[in-house]
Amino acid sequence: MPLDGLTLSFLSNELRDALVGGRIDRIVQPERDELNLTIRNNGQNYLLLLSAGADCARAHLTAQKKIGPLEAPALCMLMRKHVTGGRISDIRQIDCDRILEISIDHYDELGERATKKLICEFMGKHSNLIFLGGDGRIIDSARRVNEAMSSVREVLPGLRYELPPAHGKIPFAEVSAERLLNTLQGQAGFLWKLLARSISGLSTQAAHEFAFRATGNENAHIEECDLRAVCESVAFELQHLTPNPQVLFDSEGKSADFTAFEYRSRGNMNRKAFETLSEAMDAFYLSRDQAARIQQKSATMHRVLKTNIERLERKLALQKEALLGSERMEEYRIKGELLMANLNCAKKGEKSVQLPNYYEEEMPLIQVELDEKLSPSANAQRYFKLYQKARNAKSLAAEQIEITSAELDYLDGQMDNLGKCSEEAALVEMREELEKLGYIKPNRNRRQMKQLPPSKPMRFALPNGRIILVGRNNLQNDKLTFTAQPDEIWLHAKDMPGSHAIIIGENPDDETIRAAAQIAAAYSKGAQSSNVPVDYTLRKYVKKPSGARPGFVIFTHQKTLYVHPDPHLGCMEQ
Q1: Which of 572, 573, 508 is nearest to 539 (CA)?
Q2: For 73-92, what is each residue's pLDDT tens digit?
C-alpha cells in the first residue's frame, strides 16, 4: 500500500525508538531518489532506507545493502560534508501528513553545535528528499523543482523550505465523532471515498478498512448507514489502533501488500506477521524493488538485442532470397554448353534458338534466349559468366547464411538469458559480454561494476536430495559446465537457446535426469511449449571450440528426452 499518513505515524514511532541518539557513520545514494544512512546506536548498526521513488516512496530500516555510484551525487556529497558523524536528535511526522522530519545534531566548521534536518516527503510522483540547513533554507534535494515545473512551490538550493499546501482535512489524530459527523452530514456516495476525502493521512485502502469496520461492508453507501454510529466507530478505531505489521499474499503466493495494522476487510488473504513495520516493508519491497531495478537496468540491453535481432532477421531473409536466385545456375551452364556445341544453329541478330537438350534421354528441344547484338559464341560466353556468377553467389550466400544464423542464434540466446536475470551482477556480466563483442558501448562506471560479487547459478533441490545447477547467462553457463566433474550429467534444450544444467554427483537415477531435463527445458526458449527435446550427456563429452562465443559448446554421446517444462519440480535455493 502507499505510505499514507496513518502508516507513517506507526513508522515514525518505530524509527524514533530505534535511531534517536544514534550516530550517522555512512551515507550512500545508490539511486537518484534514494538515500541509505548507516546509523550506530545502542551498540548496533542500523541501515535506514529513504526513497522518493514515484511508486515506492518510503522510509524503513533495511537489511539490504546497496552499492553507491563511483561519483556520489551532489545531495549525498553535501550530506556527507555536513552531517557524517552527527547524531539523530529527533524523528517526527509533520501534521499527520506523509512528511517525515529527521533532525540531526552535529558540530559545524567553527566547532559549534548545529542542527540540520532531512525532510522526507512521500507523496507519489511529488515525493522528495530535502536537506535543510539550521536556518530552514534548502541545501539540496533529490529532486529540484523550479517555477516552470510547479507554480505552487519551488524546491531549490537557497530557498526557504515551505510545507506542501494543506488540503483542509481533519488530521487523523484529531478525529472525533462530532467533528467527523459535522463534516460528513449532507454528503452522499461511497463511505470510504468520503472518509478518504475528509480525513488527512488515510489512503484509499485504509478508508476501505475503516468503512468495513464501521458497517461490515467496505463499499457501503453513506445514505444507507447510521451516520452517527459510523462516525463513533471510525473515531474509536483511529484512537485505539495498535501496530500489527503484516505482509499479505495473493492466491499465487506472491506478496500483494503490507499493512501497519490488521486489515479485517482482507480476512480472506494469506498473511505473515512481522515484529516491526520495517521488517514487513523490507520483505515486501525486496522482490518488487529488485524486479523493477532489473527491468530498468536491462532496458538498454533489451533494446539493443531486439534491434540487432530484427536487423539479422532482415539480413537472413535477403541472403536466402539470393540463394534462391542462384538456383538457375545449372540452367545457365546447360544453355551455354548447348550453344557452344551448336554454334552453326544460331545466328547473330536472333532473339532465341531451339536446340536439342542432350542432357536428357529423349533430347527435347530447349529454347535458348540470345542477345541480338552478340555472336553465338559471345552468347555462349555470356551464359558461362552467368553460371560462374550464380555459383559464386550460391557459395557466398550459403556461407553468409551460416554466419548470420549463428549470430542470430547467439542473440536469441542472449535475449533468453536476459529474461532469466534476477540479480544485478548477472546483468553486469551480460553487459560486459555484449560490450566486448561491440553490441553496446562500454560503460564508464567500471569500478562500480567490479564491486559487485559474481553472480551465481540457480540452484534447485529435488525431493530426493539431488541438486541441479542452472546457468543464468553465457558466462555462468561456461563456468558451470567446465567446473563440473567429468562424470556428472550435463543437460541442454535441443537446438534452441537455453541454459546449461548440471546434476551434482554421479550416477543419477532416471527420475532425477527427467526432473533435471524438465527444469532445463523451463529455462530455455521452449519454456512455453508442451514437449521440449532435451539433450543430456556426461560433462566430459562437452567441449568448447577454440574462439567460440561464450556459452557455445559441442557435445557427443548424447541422449534425448522429450519433457514438459517445469521450473517448480525442485525447491529453488538462493
Answers
A1: 508
A2: 999 999 999 999 999 999 99
